[in-house]
Amino acid sequence: xxxxxxxxxxxxxxxxxxxxxxxxxxxxxxxxxxxxxxxxxxxxxxxxxxxxxxxxxxxxxxxxxxxxxxxxxxxxxxxxxxxxxxxxxxxxxxxxxxxxxxxxxxxxxxxxxxxxxxxxxxxxxxxxxxxxxxxxxxxxxxxxxxxxxxxxxxxxxxxxxxxxxxxxxxxxxxxxxx
Length: 178
Description:
Elements: E1 3-8, H1 16-26, E2 32-35, H2 48-52, H3 57-68, E3 71-76, H4 85-97, E4 106-112, H5 120-129, E5 136-143, H6 146-149, E6 150-151, E7 156-157, H7 160-176
Parallel strand pairs: 1-2, 1-3, 3-4, 4-5
Antiparallel strand pairs: 6-7
Helix pairs in contact: 3-4
C-alpha cells in the first residue's frame, strides 16, 4: 500500500479542482490517501527579500508532507492559461526550499474548469515544469465543462464518457504506483 497525497492548486472556497481531487481520491481503494486543502498553507508572496527573512513554516510543512508521500494527485486550476498566482507562489517557495521537491514522486495530474478546455493550458504548463522538479507524471486528465459534467448534488461524474476515461486514468495510475 502506497501513501498518496492529493490536493488542488486553487485557493477558492468553492474550488471545482478540489471537488475533482476529492472525487478521484475516493475512487482509489488500494492505497492510503490524504487530501489536503492548500488554503491551510498560507505563505507570503515569494520574493528574494522574503526568502532572506527565512522560509515560511507552512512551506516547510508542505514540503515534508510531499516528501513523505509515494505519489501525488494534483488538480491545477487555470488563470490566463497558467496556474493561478496562489499555486504558483506555493511552487515557487517549494522549489526554493528544494529544487527537486518532487523527486521520486509519481503524479496523477488533472485540471478542470467551467469551460470546454477544462484548464488545459494550466495542465500543459504543469506537465512541462513538474518534471523539472523531479516529478514523474504517470497520467494526466483534463475535465471539461465541470458544471455540465459533474453532479454537485451527488459529487460524481455525470457524463458517462468522461467517467469511463477518468476511471481508466485512475486505474492506470493506481497500478503504476504499486
